[in-house]
Amino acid sequence: MSDKVLLDYGSGGRASQRLISQLFLNHFSNDELNRLNDAAELSMSGRLAMSTDSFTVDPIFFPGGDIGSLAVHGTVNDVAMMGAIPRYMTCGYIIEEGLPMADLETIVASMGEAARHAGVDIVTGDTKVVPKGAVDKIFINTTGIGDIIVDPAPSGDAARLGDAVLISGTVGDHGLTILGTREGLEFEAAVQSDSAALNHLLVKLVQELPEVHVMRDPTRGGLATTLNEITGSSNVCCELDESAIPVRLEVKGGCSILGLDPLYLANEGKFLCILPEEHSEKALEIMRADPLGQDACRIGTMTDANPGKVVLITALGGKRLLGMLEGEQLPRIC
Question: Is the whole-model pTM more than 0.90?
Answer without folding.
Answer: yes
